[in-house]
Design brief:
By secondary structure, the protein is mainly alpha-helical. It has one domain. The protein contains 9 helices and no strands. Helix 6 runs antiparallel to helix 7. The longest helix is centred in the C-terminal third of the chain and has 26 residues. The N and C termini lie close together (10 Å). The mean pLDDT is 96.
Amino acid sequence: MSINWLILLTTSFIPMAVGFLWYNPSFLGKKWQEASGLSDEKIKNANMPLIFGFTILFSFFASLALNFMVIHQFHVFSIVMDEPSFANKSSELNAMLNDFMTKYGNNFRTFKHGAFHGVIAGIMLALPVTTVNALFERKGFVYIAINAGYWIVCFALMGGVICAFS
């Protein structure tokens, strides 16, 4: 089983696309701006190429992590990769792995299943991290809900695409 780097690169643009909608002033942008305490002036003076570049880079990291969360078949390989015969393509272990992948390699490989795990990752990872940061920054519920909701939606879409198309 190998990693589909093209899908991971593609899904790393999902947070950018969702962000254009989510933080648009017509949707949640004005509420987010108010909850975060950012003035129009501060927003206009931002270094957007830097922000977009790091957004894509770190979203790629998130895609890579989600890849192993939403595709269960990777776990089988991680259990046996330390075995000496793992590197030997003609070994009994590799024959068993090939047989396993032939029989079960496509199980739970749907958009719906990946989106489900993406939502779980968003709730169990993004929500706590966002909330802890917000608490120390003295931000309120609206700020937490907007930002955590954004990542839950992003992880759902990213997980769905990764699971269905990798």
